[in-house]
């Protein structure tokens, strides 16, 4: 009898996962919920001219518009950082990672030239906010970051913001070390499956290693419709259905601004960008990756907007500023 009961429960669990994965987005006619169809059509034409792979617009968890191939998996570049940030929220809640722990406490170092004692005073929180003060060469750096990277020792930990791949990559190492989990397996079991992602598998992540640093990057590929689920999860305050997938306190904390990129009037949280309140209302934020990979969340409009760009098809990509202009038009069309 006990064996039968366990077998029955196993079948129920398998069916539940299958149902979560099979649940597709619900499309809704925007004209029936107060959208300006004329303005929305103009925004969609503007977006299409940028040649993205896919675009999805959600309001209240329903699809207002979609274009392109929303099931095509695309390399999401720096969006990876926001995905890891979500996993950190779970690990912190479970007591497996302490944000106040220093690199010295955690035994984190790097290849020659090794970290100095001062650099090792940087905390996990300093890395999450990209304020570590550690300007060691890093894997997956762009030429722009290499050119702008400050001199080693020029800023003490916690005192200066610089968008720094060393911080982001070392956080991947710390996550694996402190949780004992692979990043991609963890994302699949802790986020992708609970929210019913339709396309993601652990094969869609890899570790990008370079000799200059012992901390690899961890690029992801996602489809637009799966990226939209991740954005909706954060709009929902970390809940999916009746399940609290990401702690609500972490959603709020990680998407608050701790630094400001004054040139573009945007803030930076725990590996999320934030948008100015005077334009977007309170608590708007987005994940951004090179070439136009975007997951944007605008709580004041109950909106999630996702754009993916396959750079093998559109080598020039889409500038973030161009996407932001489109998103303003989308917001103007919404009720």
Question: Could you characterize what this model shows?
Answer:
Helices cover 38% and strands 16% of the residues. The longest helix is centred in the N-terminal third of the chain and has 21 residues, at 2-22. The chain has an 8-stranded antiparallel β-sheet, with helices on both faces. Strands 3-6 form a two-stranded antiparallel ribbon. A two-stranded antiparallel ribbon has the order 4-5. The protein has 335 residues and is an alpha+beta fold. The protein has a single domain, classed as Beta-lactamase (3-Layer(aba) Sandwich), CATH 3.40.710. Residues 1-22 have low confidence and may be disordered. It has helices at 2-22, 37-49, 79-93, 103-106, 124-128, 143-148, 165-179, 183-192, 224-235, 248-254, 277-280, 320-333; strands at residues 54-59, 62-68, 74-75, 208-210, 213-217, 221-222, 239-240, 243-244, 259-261, 266-268, 273-274, 285-289, 293-298, 303-308.
Features:
335 residues, alpha+beta, Beta-lactamase, 8-stranded antiparallel beta sheet, 38% helix, globular
In DSSP terms (H or I, runs of 4 or more residues), the helix count works out at 12
CATH topology: Beta-lactamase
CATH architecture: 3-Layer(aba) Sandwich
Order of strands, main sheet, comes to: 2-1-14-13-12-11-10-9
Regions with little confidence, pLDDT below 50 for 5+ residues: 1-22
Helical content (DSSP H or I, runs of 4+): 25-40%
**Helix and strand string, N-terminal first?**
HHEEEHHHHHHEEEHEEHEEEHEEEH
- Specify Rg, calculated over alpha carbons: 20 Å
CATH class category label: Alpha Beta
Cα(first) to Cα(last) distance is 56 Å
Quaternary class: single chain
Q: Supply the number of structural domains.
A: 1
Amount of beta strand: 15-25%
What is the assigned CATH homologous superfamily? DD-peptidase/beta-lactamase superfamily
Largest sheet, strands/sense/barrel: 8 strands, antiparallel
Structural class: alpha+beta
């Amino acid at each position: 009898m006990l064996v039968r009961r366990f077998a029955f429960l196993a079948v129920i669990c398998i069916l539940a996962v299958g149902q979560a994965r099979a649940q597709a987005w619900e499309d809704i006619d925007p004209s029936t919920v107060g959208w300006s169809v004329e303005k929305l059509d103009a925004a969609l034409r503007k977006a299409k001219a940028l040649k993205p792979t896919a675009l999805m617009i959600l309001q209240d968890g329903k699809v207002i518009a979609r274009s392109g191939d929303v099931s095509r998996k695309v390399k999401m570049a720096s969006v990876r950082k926001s995905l890891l940030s979500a996993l950190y929220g779970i690990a912190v809640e479970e007591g497996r990672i302490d944000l106040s722990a220093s690199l010295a406490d955690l035994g984190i170092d790097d290849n020659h030239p090794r970290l100095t004692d001062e650099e090792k005073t940087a905390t996990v929180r300093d890395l999450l906010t990209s304020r570590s003060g550690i300007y060691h060469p890093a894997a997956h750096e762009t030429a722009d970051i290499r050119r702008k990277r400050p001199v080693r020792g020029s800023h003490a930990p916690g005192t200066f913001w610089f968008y720094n791949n060393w911080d982001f990559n070392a956080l991947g190492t710390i996550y694996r070390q402190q949780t004992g989990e692979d990043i991609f397996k963890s994302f699949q079991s802790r986020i992708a499956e609970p929210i019913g992602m339709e396309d993601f598998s652990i094969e869609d992540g890899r570790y990008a290693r370079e000799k200059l640093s012992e901390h690899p990057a961890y690029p992801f590929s996602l489809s637009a419709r799966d990226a939209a689920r991740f954005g909706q999860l954060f709009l929902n305050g970390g809940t999916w259905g009746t399940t609290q997938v990401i702690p609500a306190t972490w959603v709020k904390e990680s998407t608050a601004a701790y630094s400001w990129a004054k040139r573009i009037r945007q803030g930076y949280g725990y590996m999320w960008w934030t948008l100015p309140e005077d334009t977007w209302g309170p608590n708007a934020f987005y994940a951004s990756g090179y070439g136009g990979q975007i997951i944007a969340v605008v709580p004041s409009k109950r909106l999630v907007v996702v754009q993916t760009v396959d750079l093998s098809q559109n080598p020039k990509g889409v500038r973030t500023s161009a996407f932001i202009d489109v998103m303003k038009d989308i917001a103007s069309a919404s009720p």
